[in-house]
Amino acid sequence: MDDQSSSIIDSEYQIHPKLTGVMGLNPLLRESSAPRLYMFFGQLSQAMTTKGVTPNMFSTFAEDEFGKYTFSVKMPHRGEVYRVIRKYPTTDYGSKGVQSPLTLAIYQNLESDVREFDVLELPLYHTMHQHFGYSFVGREALNRIRPQGVLRKGEEVLGCPGVWEDGTFCYGTETNLALMTLPDVIEDGALVSEEWLETQQVECFGKRVIRFGRDEIPMNIYGDDRNYKIIPDIGDRIHEDGLLFASRKVDPLLACVQLLPRNLRHDRILPTDRLTYAIPNAEVVNVTVLKGRGNTPSIPEEMETQLRRYYDKARDFYKQIYDTEIDLYRNFGNKIRFTPALHRLFVDARAYLETYNGTSCVEPRYGKLKVNDWLVVVDYRYKLTPDIGWKISDSQGAKAVIVAKRPRSEMPTDMHGNVADVVMDPNSTVKRSNVGRTTEQWIKASLIYHGNVIRAMLNEGKEDEAWAYLLGYMKILSPAHHRLLLNPELDKKHELSKIRRRGIRCYAPTDNPVAYYQAIDRLEKEGYGLPIGPVSYVGNSGNRVTTKQEIVIGPVYMYLLEKDARTWAAVTSARLHPSYGTPTKLGASDKHRSPGKESATKTLGETEERLYYAACGGYAVSQVIERSNNPLAHRSAVRNVLKSKHPTDIVDSVNWNEVPVTGGRPLQFLTHMYNCMGIGFEIPEENRRVDFLPPGY
C-alpha cells in the first residue's frame, strides 16, 4: 500500500479507540450499522463466561484493558497476612476434597501511617445473576495467603476464568460459521453442532432458604437407618428429582404412624408435606445454619445432629474471629486501627457467639427473615449446557436463536477440512446491515489458512521466507500490526514460534488505517487470497450432499446470551387466592415447593385482548380469562387433568358445558357492587352472539 492511498484511507476511516468505549472491542466498527453496534453494546452485558472461551484472533487488544476490570478479588493495599480463617477448614462436614465456601485473610495494611488491620474475603464463586456465575480461579498470589505472607497492592488473588493468565479478556468463543440457506436457519434461526454446545457450558448457582421447628418435623430425605440426614452435605448432590428438603407438620392424632422412622424417608412423601425443590443433581457448596435464641431442642435431638454439626462449626469459625481480635489487642495494645469491614466482622462474631450461648439480647435474623427455631441456607452450583431455544450473538449484533442441533459429523465441511459449528441465514447480513460479520469471517479464515502456510515454511526450515511472507500479509491487512513487526527489538523467532503454536493473532485497532473491503481485494491480488469451494453436509434426508456454490467457513467471535429457554412458565390453572379466587403470587415458603413454576405468566393485556378478540372472537377470549379467575374453571381443569389417562394430551382441560363464562371473580365482584346500588347488567339482544356465549346460555 503506497503512502498516498494510506493517508486517504486514514483520514476517511479513522475512529480513535478512546472514543469507542465498550464497542472498542470490535475492530470492525466501520463495517456495520449503528443500531447493530449498539445492540452489541447492550448484549455484551448479557454475555456469559462459558467453558470454552477463547481469545479473539482478530482484535483491538482492548481486551487486555477490559480484563483489569472484571469481577475478581484483589489486594486493596500492600499488606502482610496476619491470620487465615476458613469457614469449614476440614472435610468432616461434607464430602472429602471440597473447598471452603469462604476464607478470610486478616492482614496489616503496610501502606498506612498507623498500625491498621483489614480483612480480605475470598469466596468460592461469584454471581450477580439469579442463576449464572462462575467459580473463581486462584492466581499465583493465592499461595501467599498464609501468615506472614506479603502481597502487593492491586495484586489479583482470585480471578475470572474468562481472563487468561496474560490478562486477555475472553467474552466469547471463536466459532466456525457457515452462511447457508438451510430450512433450519430461516430468519433468526441457527443450526449448531452438539459438540459446540458442550463448549458453551456455563456454571450456575442457586440458593434455598428453609425454616422449620417445633410443630414441623424435618424428614430423613438424604439419610439412612443409622444417619438422620435432612439435607445434602457440602460436596453432595441433590436428588435426581430435585427434592432438597421435606418437612411434616405434627398431627397429634396421626403422629404415632406418620413419625415412624420408615415413614420419614424420601419414598414416603405425603401430599400434605412441605417440600422444597432445587436443581436436580446440583452440588451443594455451602450450608449456613442459624438458630433462634437458646439451645433448647425444638425437635427430637437425633433430627438435629446434622444441623448441630454445621451450627457448631460456625461457632468455631466466629470463635477464631473473636480470638483474632483479642490477640491483636494483646499484641499491639490500643495502638491499632480496624477498618469498618473488619470492625463489622468482629461485631458479628460477638453477636453470633452470644446467640449461640443463649446470652444475646439481639434477635437472630437472616435478612428480613426472623429466626424462631431453625433456619438453613443451602447454596448449590450446577453446570448447564445450552440447548434449543437459547440465544447467541456476535460482535456485529447478529443475534440468533438456536433452533436445531446436529452432530459435528453432519455439519458443513469445506475443502480444507474446516467444519462449521454454526449455520445462519446469509440474507440476514443484508437485512441487518452488518456486513462486518462476513468481513470478520473472511479475514479469520484467511488468518487460519495463511498461518498454516507459514507453519509449512517453518517445518521446512525457511524462517526468513516465513517472516517475509508474514510482513507482506500484515502490511496489507493491518498496517498497525505491521508496524509492531518492524520493531527492531522484536524477537522474530519468538513471534514465529507463537504462530507455529497457536496460529496468527492479528492486532487491528479501531483506528487501523485500512478499509477492510479494499484490503481483501488487495490480498487476493497480491497472492494472499483464500481458496474456497463447495461444502458438503448431511441433509434432512440423511444423505451427504455437496453445494453448487462456493461457501466460506471461517471463525466469528460468538458469545452465549443469558436468555435461556428452560423455565417452566405454563400451568393448566394458576394458583388462586383462598378467599378471593383470583390469581395470587407465591410466598417465599411456597415458591420452590414444586419442581415447576406454579404461578403462570401474564396471559392477556389490554392490547392482547383486542388482538385475540379480532382473530378468535369473544368467546375464546372469555375462556382464557375465565381459566385464570374462575374457581369453577380451576376445579374443572384440575379434576380433568387428574382423571385423564393422558394428562398432557387433553383437547380442553375445562368442560365449558358445565362452567359458565360469567363465573369469573372480578366480574362477580363488579356485579355485586352494582347490585348493591340497584344496578344490574344484561346483554343486549344485538350483542348476544353465538361465539361469545356458551352453548345453551
Describe the SSE topology:
Layout: H1 3-13, H2 34-43, E1 58-59, H3 63-66, E2 73-74, E3 79-86, E4 102-109, E5 116-123, E6 125-126, E7 132-135, E8 137-138, E9 150-151, E10 156-159, E11 173-179, E12 189-193, H4 194-199, E13 202-212, E14 216-218, E15 243-249, H5 255-258, E16 274-277, E17 283-291, H6 305-332, E18 337-338, H7 340-356, E19 365-366, E20 369-370, E21 374-384, E22 391-394, E23 400-406, E24 422-424, H8 427-432, H9 436-459, H10 463-477, H11 479-485, H12 492-502, E25 506-507, H13 516-525, E26 536-538, E27 544-546, E28 553-560, H14 606-616, H15 618-629, H16 631-643, H17 665-676
Helix pairs in contact: 6-7, 9-10, 10-11, 14-15, 15-16
Would you give an account of this structure?
With 697 residues, this protein is of the alpha+beta class. It has 4 domains: 3-48 and 179-193 and 406-559, Dna-directed Rna Polymerase Ii 140kd Polypeptide, Chain: B, Domain 6, CATH 2.40.270; 67-159, no CATH class; 202-384, no CATH class; 567-697, no CATH class. Strands 11-24-12-23-22-28 form a 6-stranded mixed β-barrel. The longest helix has 28 residues, at 305-332. It starts with a helix and ends in a 21-residue tail after the last helix.
